[in-house]
Design goal:
InterPro entries: Aph-1. Component of the gamma-secretase complex. Its main location: membrane. By secondary structure, this protein is mainly α. It has one domain. The chain is about 80% helix and about 0% strand. It has helices at about 5-25, 35-70, 80-110, 125-150, 155-170, 180-200, 205-230. The longest helix is centred in the N-terminal third of the chain and has 40 residues, at about 35-70. The protein is globular and about 65 Å long.
Length: about 230
């Protein structure tokens, strides 16, 4: 399933959020530092809300497409499961979000200068990399949970997804106090990943069954290899 159409929805939400922030900045007092910082937080919140709105719009679009594929298939079922669509949608949102998060950082890494030369944190790039990784995973998990909540009309789950997205975005404003931002974000990532795993039908029993099957397959491969290799004195 191609990722580009799904990433396009995230790009449109980013464009709209950027336009709202741009207009707000130019209509306000640009000399007021506190006001500009508040508008930056406002822009981040609007961006999150627009991303979730476009995620919902994409859910509705996929729902219509899924019904159309089911009607033209021979067995009356869509060739792609809805959970696969949710996973790919979340992954595409995460990848394009990660690209835009890290592209300016990579541009600054070219130089000139050395990180930390003016007293800034020398861990700027490594923490940015970890933060980008967390955002990619979070968008993937949010996609799975969001689509399942829309399908089953669990509005409290939708509220938690939006709230966790807003909280994660807000925690980034604590940088460069990285301990206060990265640790909570990774806790949110682990919790959301577990939630998405259960939402997708995963369980501890399935993990044990998967591991036992893998061990059986490994033992069969070793036995097959032993039978194929001739014994030498």
């Amino acid at each position: 399933v191609p990722l580009l159409p799904r990433a396009f929805f995230w790009l449109v939400s980013l464009l709209l959020a950027s336009l709202i922030w741009f207009v707000s900045v130019h209509l306000s007092d640009r000399e007021n530092a506190k006001l500009q910082y508040g508008l930056l937080i406002f822009g981040a919140a609007v961006s999150v809300l627009l991303q979730e709105a476009f995620r919902f719009a994409y859910f509705k679009l996929l729902k219509k497409a899924d019904e159309g594929l089911a009607t033209i298939s021979e067995d009356g079922r869509s060739p792609i499961s809805f959970r696969q669509m949710a996973y790919v949608s979340g992954l595409s949102f995460g990848i394009i979000s990660g690209v835009f998060s890290v592209i300016n950082i990579l541009a600054d890494s070219i130089g000139p200068g050395i990180v930390g030369i003016h007293g800034d944190s020398p861990y700027y790039f490594i923490t940015s990399a970890f933060l980008t990784m967390a955002l990619v995973l979070l968008h993937t998990f949010w996609g799975v949970i969001f689509f399942d909540a829309c399908e089953k009309r669990r509005y409290w789950c939708l509220g938690l997804v939006v709230a966790s997205h807003l909280l994660t975005s807000g925690l980034t404003f604590l940088n460069p106090w990285y301990e206060a931002s990265l640790v909570p974000i990774f806790i949110i990532t682990l919790g959301t990943g577990l939630w998405a795993f259960i939402t997708a039908g995963g369980s501890f029993r399935n993990i044990l069954k998967c591991l036992s099957c893998k061990q059986e397959d490994d033992s069969r491969v070793m036995m097959y290899s032993a039978l194929q290799v001739p014994f030498e004195d």
